[in-house]
Design goal:
By secondary structure, the protein is mainly α. Helices cover 83% and strands 0% of the residues. The longest helix is centred in the N-terminal third of the chain and has 32 residues. The radius of gyration is 20 Å and the shape is globular.
């Protein structure tokens, strides 16, 4: 146990957690702002529903950018190392987020405003494309035997930490500012605050050393000249399976956060502060699910835990319409808590499972590409599709959509039965 409590180990796990918490904070404040204010401020269309749909479409831009970021940062992460690549990804993400705070709205700059917003949203996604894979590798490539699942869950815990910081700040602003002040300038403050969090993340990461797995590669010969080419030539099956395997976690998360927030404050008529309070309580169940799934991943294996999570996520899909559409805040809160708890089981083990699919030579590229390509399928379009489905057919088709997404991940996990490279 001395290895687990060593200062260097605590620093490694802290860096993997803090960095992803910063990255996900940046990502979530955009999701929250898109659900609450970006529609009328940047997309003055004919109806509130159309405005919200356009705001969700801008949200999806980052998911298109994420595989591009995964390709670029994965290339350098496999060639020059994990540490410097992680620092660069954090700076790109943080700079894009900070710049959003200074954007003009449509009323000031016309269509230049949404164009700039989408450009910076692309920058957010580009940075995050290199963030998750590097943070996961930082944790699991330093894990002692028998601890890969629990080490791999630390980057995943950045998700609830970032979500609580983002939505908690929006909740506080909603309580102390009038609606007029919030829409006028208050929404900019969370984007400004990201500069402080990025500085903390950089301070932690600059103290890191290279992972043992990458250091060992340097002794065996030169790195791959084009990691993506080697990945697609030798490991395309693992890449495809990993991509499909992460769809469930993205769909489950963004339907129970971004889509649910927009639905709850429009169709159900709850105030922004009320619904954010319910989501903040529910997100604690995501953290509990991640912690439990990390322990179970070491007791059994990450793939088996993910399979069980996908089966439960299908059930969440069928529960979505009757519970989210009930109109009862208690039942809605129970649904969100249950959905996010299940999400912990389809998300927490990914930090150990995805890197284990690939050899160290192309691990950064492989894990990043699989995670972020799956993000397009499961997360980038989820709020847009769900909003369109609910406008035309109510919540039942939204639940079916979640069930199908979860079934796709389940099939991929059942098909991809291969001993992990990290064992």
């Amino acid at each position: 146990m001395g290895t687990i409590t060593a200062p260097s180990t605590r620093r490694i796990l802290g860096a993997s957690l803090v960095g992803t918490a910063v990255e996900f904070y940046d990502f979530y404040i955009y999701a929250t702002a898109a659900s609450l204010v970006f529609g009328p401020l940047f997309f003055p269309l004919e109806s509130a529903s159309a405005q919200l749909l356009a705001a969700y479409a801008s949200f999806a831009v980052a998911f298109i950018a994420r595989p591009i970021g995964a390709l670029v940062f994965g290339h350098y992460g496999d060639r020059i190392g994990r540490k410097s690549t992680l620092v660069a990804s954090l700076m790109v993400m943080g700079g894009s987020t900070l710049a959003i705070a200074f954007l003009p709205t449509y009323g000031t700059a016309g269509w230049l405003a949404p164009l700039l917003l989408c450009t910076l949203r692309f920058g957010q996604g580009f940075g995050l494309g290199g963030e998750w894979g590097g943070a996961a590798l930082l944790a699991v490539e330093n894990a002692p035997p028998g601890w890969r699942g629990r080490f791999g869950m630390f980057p995943q815990l950045g998700a609830p930490v970032g979500f609580i910081a983002a939505n908690g700040l929006f909740l506080i602003l909603g309580l102390v500012l009038s609606d007029e002040d919030f829409r006028s300038w208050g929404w900019r403050l969370p984007f400004l605050a990201s500069a402080i969090l990025v500085a903390v993340g950089l301070w932690v990461r600059l103290k890191l050393t290279e992972t043992p797995a990458f250091a060992a590669l340097a002794e065996k010969g030169p790195p791959p000249s084009i990691p993506i080419a080697e990945l697609l030539r030798l490991h395309w099956r693992e890449t495809l399976g990993g991509m499909l395997g992460v769809i469930a976690c993205f769909a489950l998360f963004y339907l129970s956060t971004a889509f649910a927030l927009g639905y709850g404050t429009t169709k159900l008529g709850y105030t922004r502060e009320t619904f954010l309070s319910v989501q903040l309580g529910a997100i604690l169940f995501l953290a509990i699910g991640i912690l439990l799934s990390g322990w179970l991943s070491d007791r059994f294996d990450p793939r088996r835990v993910l399979i069980g999570g996908c089966v439960a996520a299908i059930g969440v899909g069928f529960a979505l319409a009757p519970m989210l559409g009930s109109g009862s805040l208690a039942i809605v809160g129970l649904f969100l808590a249950g959905a996010l708890f299940v999400m912990g089981f389809v998300y927490g083990p990914l930090g150990a499972w995805l890197p284990g699919l690939f050899p160290a030579r192309v691990r950064y590229t492989g894990a990043s590409m699989a995670f972020n390509m799956g993000g397009i399928l499961g997360g980038g379009l989820a709020p847009v599709i769900a909003q369109a489905l609910s406008d035309t057919g109510g919540l039942r088709p939204v639940g079916w959509y979640l069930a199908v997404a979860s079934a796709a991940s389940l099939i991929a996990l059942l098909a991809l039965d291969k001993p992990p490279h990290l064992d």
